[in-house]
Every structure is written in structure tokens, then in C-alpha cells.
Design a protein that fits this description.
The chain is an alpha/beta fold. The protein has 9 helices and 7 strands.
Length: 252
């Protein structure tokens, strides 16, 4: 079981604090993605809940709960069956690790842990959702199902975010088909492999142009990210070398 450090007492958690807290928490969320979730959670309308699909051991849950606490204090609901998938040993549950990590972060009181599948929770859900974070099964059918189950509960200006876009075909296809092509979402943001977008109505000419520019930037970022992962034409080697030179220059 992965564990985290103790929360600083007497103040709200800043992103630098959370970096230290989640350092020992098992998971695949990067620091830039965490900061994006923190900002989105802080801005989330408290008349709706922040719903997380796929908590694992709490890495993203901590970012969401800390952001909510520092911002408008929307309720965080963490949904995960905590059993199954090839990532867990047979019979092993991650629920205890999640709860222990939330306790150590001092955020357990901000999170409603639901040990169930996305479909099971959605079946009886009656409230609104202001931020939907999808990081469950990455198969296309499953990721699409998660969005379709929860979309009817989204507030008119709610935000939807998905993890492992760009590099995993399932989540990326969901973004392209249900967020981009539907034209029901705008304000696209990305960090590492996470994509987020805000629900919208019919856009005027200026807003529609801004949407197209944002999507063009996202497409270019995706090309660079995939080229880095595949080291196309040595791109990753060059980027790493340039990054190292910049870091050394900063130290001087």
C-alpha cells in the first residue's frame, strides 16, 4: 500500500504542499495534471458535485479535494469499485489505501467515497454535477459509457475532464467524438495527458473562433506528445537534451 506525508497544519493546501503529499501515492497522474484538477475543482459550482470516476489510491482525489477546499467547496464524490481490473491482484481492494491517504492529507471529510461502479452510482444519482473527472476503464466503450451516464446530470456550464487522452485510443476517441464534434463543449484545456472542456450552448462568431483556435492548439500539442512518446525522428532525445540545457542554465 502506498502512503503519503502528513498535511501541514493550520492552513489550506497549496499545490506545492499537494506535490509533497501525493509523492508516495501510487498512481499515474502527473503534477501538471494535478494542478489543472486543483484549479477546476476550486472553480466548481457548489450547487453541483465534483464526481471522480476511478480513484485508485487517491492521487487525483487529493488534488480535487484540496482544490475544492481552497475554492468554492463543492462536494467531492469518489467512485471506484476498488476491485477487479488487471492492475489489481485478484481479491485485492484499494479502498483502504484510498481512505488512509485521504486521512493523512486531512481531506477525508471533503470526500464521499462510493465503493461501486460508475453505472451503479449513476443509477440512483439525483443531484447536479459541476465537474466530471473520468479516469476509469480506458476502453473506448467504457469511457464513452461513463460520459453518457453522467452527462444528463451536468450543469449547463459544467466541466468534463478525461485522463490519458492523446496517448490512449479510448479516452482520446471519446474526446473527439463527444466533446469536439458535438460542439456542446468549449474552453478546451490540456495538461500532460489530461483534456478538459466546459459545456456550452450555441456560440457566437467570436467564441466559435476562440474554440477553433483552442482545438488547433490541442491538436498540435497532441502531435508533439505522441512524437515524444514514440521518439519520432529522435524528437524525445532532442527535447530532453534541450530541457537539460535549460535546467542547467537556470542553476547558474
Amino acid at each position: 500500500m502506498s502512503t503519503i506525508g502528513q498535511r501541514p497544519s493550520g492552513r489550506l493546501l497549496a499545490p506545492a504542499d499537494i506535490d509533497r503529499l501525493v509523492h508516495g501515492v501510487d498512481g499515474w497522474l502527473g503534477p501538471l495534471e494535478g494542478r489543472l484538477l486543483y484549479r477546476l475543482a476550486a472553480a466548481s459550482d457548489p450547487s453541483g458535485a465534483i464526481v471522480e470516476i476511478g480513484s485508485w489510491q487517491g492521487r487525483s482525489t487529493i488534488w480535487l479535494a484540496a482544490g475544492s477546499e481552497a475554492g468554492r467547496r463543492a462536494r467531492v464524490v469518489a467512485v471506484d469499485p476498488h476491485v477487479g481490473t488487471h492492475l489489481r491482484e485478484p481479491g485485492r481492494s484499494t479502498e483502504h489505501a484510498l481512505r488512509a491517504n485521504l486521512d493523512r492529507a486531512g481531506l477525508a471529510h471533503r470526500v464521499d467515497v462510493r465503493v461501486a461502479t460508475s453505472e451503479q452510482v449513476a443509477e440512483t444519482w439525483s443531484g447536479a454535477v459541476s465537474l466530471l473527472w473520468i479516469d476509469g476503464d480506458h476502453a473506448y466503450e467504457s469511457a464513452r459509457r461513463d460520459l453518457e451516464l453522467w452527462e444528463p446530470h451536468l450543469l449547463p456550464d459544467a466541466v468534463v475532464a478525461l485522463h490519458d487522452t492523446f496517448v490512449f485510443p479510448g479516452p482520446e476517441r471519446v474526446v473527439r467524438e463527444l466533446l469536439v464534434r458535438s460542439r456542446r463543449y468549449t474552453g478546451f484545456q490540456h495538461a500532460e495527458t489530461t483534456t478538459a472542456a466546459r459545456r456550452c450552448g450555441r456560440l457566437g462568431p467570436r467564441a466559435a473562433l476562440a474554440r477553433r483556435i483552442g482545438l488547433a492548439r490541442r491538436s498540435l500539442y497532441g502531435v508533439r506528445l505522441r512524437a515524444y512518446d514514440a521518439n519520432t525522428l529522435g524528437y524525445a532525445v532532442v527535447r530532453d537534451a534541450l530541457g537539460g540545457r535549460r535546467r542547467n542554465a537556470d542553476r547558474r
